[in-house]
Amino acid sequence: QVQLVESGGGLVQAGGSLRLSCAASGRTFSGYTMGWFRQAPGNEREFVAAIHWNGANTYYADSLKGRFTISRDNAKNTVFLQMNSLKPEDTAVYYCASRGGGIVVHTSAYDNWGQGTQVTVSS
User: Fold this and answer.
1) DSSP label of 114
2) Low-confidence ranges of the chain (pLDDT < 70)
């Protein structure tokens, strides 16, 4: 079991940037694919980005390519989500999650979840 704790959310103006962090503890972090998801009020949780355990392979939701960047530091048991050029529609609770296999986009494929961090983008 991996315990995940997100941080770095907050209130930012449109066009601004935020960097989210997800700290992991428990079982070996480096062996897990890590994903970021988000959920806006009234919407289903949606895939944002994922990174393979080795850090070499990443995958993004098409609508977010070029603005969001996922990375990880296995030595620090942390995964990051750099978010640039933020828009009001990026407002959501952002969650990190882990799974033991490769990169997939489905929420049901991820075994462990953090509690989420709120990101609010004002216009």
Assistant:
1) -
2) none
